């Protein structure tokens, strides 16, 4: 089965891996510079790193975590749309908009992190997700 909506799904997965690498190449040196010994860490929470590492380093980690939250719904709804044969046309375009907005959100959060712009990107992406969800509902009900 080929569905155009699967292309943005793969791109967002690939982008999540890009953010993983970006996080690692900035966070590991910062941890070393801060005297953090990974071999000595036990039972830490993400908030613990916020206290010991520079904010700009943590922004990448925060975004990587964000890419495992709402995008999970995107993956699910995109698969529903693909399985129902409605993943081309407008749904593919909305999915590309969602992915573009999420990538923009990532770059913004990882570099500038001004919350008002970040929130606007998140809100627009959320609206795209709502539209995809409505289209998926129309296809299955």
TrEMBL record:
Predominant place of localization: membrane
InterPro entries assigned to the protein according to its UniProt record, in alphabetical order: MAPEG-like_dom_sf, Membr-assoc_MAPEG
Bilayer-crossing regions: 6-25, 72-99, 119-140
Pfam families in alphabetical order: MAPEG
Gene3D superfamilies the record matches: Membrane associated eicosanoid/glutathione metabolism-like domain
Keyword annotations of the record: Membrane, Transmembrane, Transmembrane helix
Highest taxon of source: Bacteria
UniProt subcellular location: Membrane
GO cellular component annotations of the record: membrane
Protein name (database record): MAPEG family protein
Organism classification: Bacteria, Pseudomonadati, Pseudomonadota, Alphaproteobacteria, Sphingomonadales
């Amino acid at each position: 089965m080929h569905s155009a909506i699967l292309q943005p799904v793969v791109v967002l997965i690939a982008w999540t891996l890009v953010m993983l690498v970006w996080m690692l190449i900035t966070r590991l040196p910062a941890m070393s510079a801060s005297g953090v010994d990974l071999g000595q860490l036990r039972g830490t929470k993400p908030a613990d790193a916020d206290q010991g590492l520079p904010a700009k380093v943590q922004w990448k980690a925060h975004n990587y975590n964000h890419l495992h939250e709402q995008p999970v719904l995107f993956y699910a709804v995109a698969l529903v749309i693909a399985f129902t044969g409605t993943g081309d046309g407008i749904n593919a375009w909305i999915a590309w908009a969602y992915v573009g907005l999420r990538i923009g959100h990532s770059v913004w959060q990882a570099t500038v992190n001004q919350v008002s712009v970040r929130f606007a990107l998140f809100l627009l992406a959320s609206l795209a997700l709502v539209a995809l969800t409505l289209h998926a509902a129309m296809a299955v009900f």
